[in-house]
Amino acid sequence: MGERQQFSSWITTYHPILFKQALWMTGNHELANESVQEAFYQAWQARKSLRDKQKVRAWLLTILRRVIYRHYESNTIYAQADFSDDLVADTPMQTTEMMLDLNRCLQYLPLHQRELILYHSLHGFSYEQISQILDIPIGTVMSRLARARQQLKNI
């Protein structure tokens, strides 16, 4: 498979995952779209740096994470948009309300805690995988995740 063809298949496969991650992290439809587009652009530019093709999802999520953090660091302000339909697309009706409640709660967490919850719960990454993605010690992942869960309980 050619380079362009392979990258195109990554876009097809991972766009929904990246978009959902961006939407959960930002709470803004427009910013989520922009972030995913920028992440794929940067991934194309850096495609030769991906050594293990089995880790493409983690690699793309890492790029997306950096894009989103850059948006927040630049103090770019976006209006809150109603994105609930995108979050619950393809979700059984009985869990829709729970997901919307979870989203409301997640918006109270700082971005770095929200992202840990999403990596672990939404994407199913292990502590070790999260440690590698974020380039922090596994103990830090565990303690930050515990604090994020505790904060969610207090909301």
Quick tags:
about 160 residues, mainly alpha, 8 helices
The number of distinct helices, counting runs of at least 4 residues, comes to 8
Q: How confident overall, as mean pLDDT?
A: 84
**Structural class designation:** mainly alpha
Strand percent estimate: under 5%
Computed Rg: 16 Å
How would you describe the overall organization of this protein?
- By secondary structure, this protein is mostly helical.
- Helices cover 74% and strands 0% of the residues.
- It contains eight helices and no strands.
- Helix 1 crosses helix 6.
- The longest helix is centred in the N-terminal third of the chain and has 24 residues.
- The chain is globular, with a radius of gyration of 16 Å.
Short structural summary:
With 155 residues, this protein is mostly helical. It contains eight helices and no strands. It has helices at 3-26, 29-45, 56-73, 84-87, 93-106, 111-122, 127-134, 138-154.
How do the helices and strands line up, and which of them pair or pack?
Layout: H1 3-26, H2 29-45, H3 56-73, H4 84-87, H5 93-106, H6 111-122, H7 127-134, H8 138-154
Helix pairs in contact: 1-2, 1-3, 1-6, 2-3, 6-8, 7-8
